[in-house]
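HUMAN: Would you supply a protein with fold tokens?

ASSISTANT:
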Amino acid sequence: MKKKLFYLFLVFCAIFVSINIFLIEKADSKIQRISYIDEWSQAKQKDLKKTIEKQGVVGSSEEHSVYFHEENGIFQKFLVGEGDTVEEGTPLFEYKAENIEEQKVALQAEIDQIEDEINSLEDYISNLEKMKSSVKPTPSLIIDKDTDKEKQSYNTLGIEYSIDQNIYNSELEISRLESRQSNLEEQLSSLSSLSETVTVKSEISGIVKDISKDLGNPIVTISSDTPIVNSNLTEKETTQVKEGLNAKVFTDVQDKSIQGEVLKISPLPEKEVNLDEESLYPIQIKLNDAKQNLMNGYHVSVSIITEEVKDVLALPIEYISKSGDKPYVWVINSSGEIEKRELSLGIKANGQHEIKKGLKLGDTIIEKPYQVSESGSRFITPLDPDVVNKKNMNKVDKPIVLENLLLGILE
């Protein structure tokens, strides 16, 4: 009897296995279209920043050299010492004037030349402002979603930014010329009052870096008190970094980052070109807040933001697969089926990829693409004990429970 039951059991197992093999191998078998998915998430909006990381050193934004010409008179004395902090207008040194009339003519000529330069720069700024108003994009151009018009709007904004940068640089140059003009007018006033002693004053705020005790020129060198970060770029990086790009500066002496922007990129390499070495090009980062407790020589880290987008759909790179050159993701649609979505991608930054087309906010994305068997399939997922309880089970239709139970046993 036991032997008969044993043989019946073997026959039952053989039939069971045969049925499952048949169901697996047939073309429309449901088991072919079931994937095991254990992790998914919703498509969300994020801010992405594409950056280039560099190391830099804090220095002065400029060095101002002051000269003394012996033909102007006899040097008297220095009024500052090396390391002294000076402001614009601080007396630097005195000399006893000779050939006063000749000096007055020379000073007046230089003042007039500076006045002409200032007028030219003001006319230049006026022309730039007129140009900016003529290229300003219209509201309809900005909101139009047509691809060509989006590019046109982007290029127009780039022209506006370039104009703003030229205006800013011209205004800085006017400020420097006005300071120089004021200093020369004071010297001329001293000579005009028949005073033999002329006082030369600083044109910038900063620190006295060097004093020439032997009266060789420059007789005084002043480092500006506006800090600047000096770094360099590789040949490839010069194609990605442009003047005016935003940057962040990090130091060991401050907990927070300092906002800045790329001020200048040298068109010449920092040292003589060598066929066996890559050329490096000096770059300067201006700090937006000049009132920072950064001393010359501090070593810092710099993050230059080459591209930035805000509030865009983005996914981790590992969620995205490729079929040839076409990227795609697996999505769980509203019917509970797995769907293949082709994507149009934007920038890639910090392990994330911008999604321009193919998804909408809240779409359910399968995080492990290798778990998907094919498009259009349904899926199974690990049982969550917290969800499977008597209360929730009572909500499920009994026929559906039976159907799925049999489907699980047979397939």
